[in-house]
Amino acid sequence: MSTIWSVDEHLEDILAAVRPLEPIELQLPDAQGCVLVEDVMVEVALPPFDNSSMDGYAVRVSDVEGASEEFPAVLTVVGDVAAGAGGLPGGRAVAPGEAARIMTGAPLPEGAEAVVPVEWTDGGTGGGPATAMRAHSDAPEGASGEVRVHRPVKPRAHVRARGSDVRPGDLALPAGSVVGPAQIGLLAAIGRASVKVRPRPRVVVLSTGSELAQPGEELTGGRIYDSNSFALTAAARDAGAIAYRVAAVADDAEALRATIEDQLIRADLVVTTGGVSVGAYDVVKEALSSVGHAPRDEEGYPDTEEDAPGPGVDFRRLAMQPGKPQGFGSIGPDHTPLLALPGNPVSSYVSFELFVRPAIRTLMGLDDVHRPTVRATLSVDEALSSPSGKRQFLRGRYDAEAGTVTPVGGPGSHLVAALAQADALIVLPEDMTSAEPGTETEVILLR
Q1: Span between the terminal Cα atoms of the chain, in Å
Q2: 73: which of 64, 105, 245, 307 fits an S-S bond (Cβ 3.0–4.6 Å)?
Q3: How would residue 296 be classed by pLDDT, with cut points 50, 70 and 90?
């Protein structure tokens, strides 16, 4: 009788065989979604100089002390400081009784101690409170003449201090960080054009089965639409991979073998779905049980040369429901990992979450490769049955506020509609044959 593997044993075997991809240097736009392999230190202060957080006037604090609309402080405007400028023309300072028009992001000129928002002034017009800064091109006289300030300011008011975000020598991002939009923004802001990362793994997903038609085609007798390859390709991308979907392959072992061999050039991981059970047309087992086995030397031991193909795929029965039939191994000259999943939609999706997603995250070089789990109270009207000796995974909806989880859909592994409603998997352990209402269970969060 063949060995029955536990879920944990199968996953442990997969993760022991999968290695993080080799690091490469990538330009920032290409590094999105990748994982840093080294700490990134700050070399340039952010902001790199004291600058204004408002459109207004750079002033000395003592010059506007006690200012009000009734008794405004009247200052001489000595020039404009625009964003991107180095300061006042000629490098002059703001002297007592003077002010400089300043734009958001512009460097604070020498001598100035704070910025008065333009709304607290007359905008240099001689009238009432201004609502906005007039454009220099429309009002060149606004850069000279006088401005009336209606409110006092404290030292450093509306000034972004040099290095108030990060300073040289600070840790910008630690190794292991995923490079997302905010991280790319920070890297660009501190002047980094490229970073050393592990690339996003390339995952090839293909379905098998002569009964599969592509969405958009007309269904003929006995055929169904291929949903697995679409769902698993999307799941691979959601996990962080670059995923390629291959059109369904018919039940022909040679065609499947040839298709997989053609795909190896662009694959760090291959995922198949369907054809791993014991039926007469389960061709994945036929095609892959011997493909890629390493050649033997004269004494019968596997050849260990670097260019020897992978040892092939091992097909197993797992103590789980759904997803009992599984396959795992490596194929081709680069020993590319291959995971063969069952064909029923729920079985394939659950198998992906339990086995493929952690493999993808391991290839990325992440430390935590698993979905988060919580403990929740089972919200059901009557007890749920579970097969003895098998770990059961039920689709569910998790209510974080109430701390409860409710099953959705029936137990059938073909019932794909409930997948769209579920945001969690309810885990019933091997020794639990009945889960009563109110039972505390482990819940794997999917979103």
Answers
A1: 39
A2: 64
A3: very low
Q: What is the DSSP string of 19-63?
A: -PPPPEEEEGGGGTT-EESS-EE--S-BSSS-EESSSEEEE-GGG
d(CA 311, CA 120): 76
Q: What is the pTM of this model?
A: 0.84
Q: What is the DSSP string of 206-222?
A: EEE-TTEE-TTSPP-TT
Q: Six-digit token pair at 220?
A: 């003929």
Residue 164, token pair as written in the block: 């108030």
Tell me, what amino acid is at 114? Answer: A
- Are the beta carbons of 408 and 422 closer than 8 angstroms? yes
pLDDT, residue 420, reads 87
Q: What proportion of the chain, given as a percentage, has pLDDT over 90?
A: 71
Q: What is the chain's alpha carbon radius of gyration, rounded to the nearest angstrom? A: 32
- Give the three-class secondary structure for 415: coil
Q: How far apart are CA 174 and CA 177, in angstroms?
A: 6
Q: Which residues contact 407 (CB under 8 A, 6 or more apart)?
A: 380, 384, 394, 395, 396, 426
Q: Which positions ≥6 away from 223 have C-beta within 8 Å? A: 211, 212, 213
Tokens matching residue 90 = 């000629």
Q: What are phi and psi of 363, to 5 degrees?
A: -60, -35
Per-residue tokens: 58: 């750079």
Q: How many whole angstroms separate alpha carbon 391 and alpha carbon 416?
A: 20
Q: What was the pLDDT predicted at 215?
A: 87
CA distances from 378 to 22, 34, 181, 412 (A): 43, 37, 38, 19
Asked whether the beta carbons of 405 and 427 are under 8 A apart, the reply is no
d(CA 144, CA 102): 12
Structure-derived torsion over alpha carbons of residues 411, 415, 417, 422, reported in degrees to the nearest 10:
30
Q: How many CB atoms lie within 10 A of CB 183?
A: 20
Q: Reduced to 3 states, what is the DSSP secondary structure of residue 314? A: strand
Instruction: Please give the C-alpha separations between residue 48 and each of 22, 116, 145, 155, 288, in angstroms, as whole numbers.
Output: 35, 21, 31, 20, 59
Task: Report the sign of the C-alpha dihedral through residues 323, 326, 332, 333, in that order.
Answer: positive
The Cα–Cα gap between 323 and 429 comes to: 15
Q: Per-residue pLDDT tens for 339-351?
A: 999 989 999 999 9
Q: Which residue's entry shows tokens 């993080």?
A: 20
Q: Report the alpha-carbon distance of residue 162 to residue 123 in Å, rounded.
A: 27
Three-class SS state of 316 = strand
**Greater confidence, 368 or 125?**
368
Residues in the chain, overall count: 447
pLDDT bin (cut points 50, 70, 90) of residue 280 is: very low
